[in-house]
Each structure stands twice: as C-alpha cells, then as structure tokens.
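Action item from last week, closing it out:
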Amino acid sequence: MKLSTQVVGDDAVRAVFARIGEAGPRALAATAEDAEAYVEGEAAHHNRTGKMVASITKTREPDGWLIAHDLRVAPYTVFVHWGARPHKIKPKNKRVLRWPGPGGFNFAKGVDHPGYKGDAWMTRAAALAPRMFAFHIDAQLKG
C-alpha cells in the first residue's frame, strides 16, 4: 500500500499569519488608547480638582505601553485607588486642625479618619486589556 500527502492552502495560511502580524502593533496601540480612556473615566469619579485625571500618563515601552499615574501630580491617588485603613490625623505644624464649617471654623487637636475601601480601577483596566486587544485584533482582521 502506497501513501502520499499533499499540502494545500499553505499560501493562504501564511497570508493570514502575515495579516495577524501586521495587525498586532495597531491593535496594541488601540488597546492602549482604550485602556487609558477607561482609567481616565474611572479616576474622574473620584476627582474634584482634575489632578488625578491630569496625573495619568501613557508611555511607549519596548514591549508595549505603560499607563500609570504620576504621583508627583496627585500623590493621594494611591490611597484613593488602594484604600486606607482607619487612622488618626494630627496637625503637622500647628497645635490644632482647622476647617470651615457652618457659622465659622471648626477646630480639633486630631481627627479619627474612618478609612476608605478604595477603588482599584488600574487593576480592572489591566484585567480588561486582553479582551480589548482581542477585540481590536478581530476588528483589524475583519476590516
């Protein structure tokens, strides 16, 4: 009994792989744009002054993109993102804390902060990124 094989369609397979290779960098850039927009939208929920959104940076790295917060612009972002345990707040340079209230200023030697649960939007963005990338690859291959 004599067996023989014949490869058919290898040029078509190579063409599909070439299209996937060409789509990768464009899909990665589009994913970085989407992830940055997601992070900006989520940070905006906690943002009164605009500094947290202004602190968002997107930098090209050798193996992709880095989306981060510049903590020099909004150092409190770490606590808003990861949360904080209950703690005591005491004045640094004065003997009392002062803040405006109804009918004048309120004074205290210390305040018990109840803590904050946090909202890990960067972690959610990192978890969503592979699905965003797959969506952009599919769109590039279909288009």
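Closing note: The radius of gyration is 26 Å.
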